[in-house]
């Protein structure tokens, strides 16, 4: 089962104990470990301006994983972030990493599906990175996100698309064998966002940026220290398969900024 690593918390403990030189409280120190999408912390930086945040805005991160993007936004902007994720072990790990980073007052996490998450107040903005590939009914899923946002709120997405029908090399970061993968062409993803009540502000193919990021990041081999694949079942194969599908054009990465319609 994808996202089935049961003891990810202990794996993080072991990795950080083995690397005492890594100060988890230092901003960005865990970027190679806790950003579960292509483009790492730099991709999150591309999304932040589109969120059009004001002081005091609370942001929703849907499918927050180990919490890297949520913590980065809190650090960069000073805003509070709430993450929601269906994988209990990942939420536990996200809370643990947030405590180590000293950010527990500004970044919180809930376990569950967005459909069953009922916040006290609508959020001022939301983001989701590399989650919808696991979701078959994307319109319903984005509609659930829209329902948790204030009218006019921004949504930023960083998403994997498959421009043409083609076999993918499994395992991938979001699916071990393809049975829980629902990757669609960019036009179809855009249509599902619009059908769910979002108006596009930007919809950009970032595949060239991603290829450059891969070249730069891995120019001298793997970066030193704790890294995300160490936490995942079959982690290195998943990352290599993904990089190869992005490099040969089988997959693309699209960045979007949207506004939630008023009614
Ligand atoms: C590839 S990871 C991305 C994590 C995070 N967004 C990041 O970029 O670091 C996908 C995450 O989506 C979560 N997920 C998958 N389906 C979900 C759903 N229907 N609702 C909420 N989370 C979901 C998984 O548990 C996993 O943590």
Automatic annotation (TrEMBL):
User: Known Pfam families for this protein?
Assistant: Methyltransf_25
Q: Which InterPro entries match?
A: Erg6_SMT_methyltransf, Methyltransf_25, SAM-dependent_MTases_sf
Q: Which GO terms describe its molecular function?
A: methyltransferase activity
Where do the TM regions start and end? none
The record's Gene Ontology biological-process terms are: methylation
SUPFAM superfamilies recorded for this chain?
Answer: S-adenosyl-L-methionine-dependent methyltransferases (SSF53335)
Q: Which CDD domains match?
A: AdoMet_MTases
Domain Methyltransferase residues, every copy:
59-152
Keywords, alphabetical: Methyltransferase, Transferase, Ubiquinone
> Under what name is this protein listed?
Ubiquinone/menaquinone biosynthesis C-methylase UbiE
């Amino acid at each position: 089962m994808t996202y089935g690593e049961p003891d990810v918390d202990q794996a993080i403990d072991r990795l950080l104990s083995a690397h005492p030189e890594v100060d988890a409280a230092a901003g960005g120190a865990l970027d190679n470990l806790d950003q579960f999408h292509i483009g790492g912390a730099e991709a999150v930086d591309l999304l932040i301006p589109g969120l059009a945040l004001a002081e005091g805005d609370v942001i929703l991160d849907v499918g927050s994983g180990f919490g890297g993007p949520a913590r980065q936004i809190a650090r960069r902007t000073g805003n509070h972030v709430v993450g929601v994720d269906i994988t209990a072990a990942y939420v536990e790990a996200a809370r643990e990493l947030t405590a180590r980073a000293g950010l527990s007052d500004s970044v919180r996490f809930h376990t569950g599906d967005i459909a069953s998450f009922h916040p006290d107040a609508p959020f001022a903005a939301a983001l989701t990175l590399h989650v919808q590939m696991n979701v078959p009914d994307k319109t319903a899923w984005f509609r659930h996100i829209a329902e948790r946002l204030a009218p006019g709120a921004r949504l930023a997405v960083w998403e994997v698309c498959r421009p043409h029908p083609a076999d993918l090399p499994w395992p991938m970061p979001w699916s071990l064998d393809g049975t829980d993968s629902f990757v669609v062409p960019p036009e179809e993803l855009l249509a599902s966002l619009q059908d769910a009540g979002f108006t596009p502000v930007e919809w950009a193919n970032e595949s060239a940026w991603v290829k450059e990021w891969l070249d730069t990041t891995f120019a001298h081999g793997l970066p030193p220290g704790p890294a995300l694949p160490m936490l995942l079942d079959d982690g290195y194969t998943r990352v290599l398969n993904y990089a190869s599908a992005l490099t040969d054009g089988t997959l693309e990465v699209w960045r979007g900024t949207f506004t939630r319609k008023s009614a």
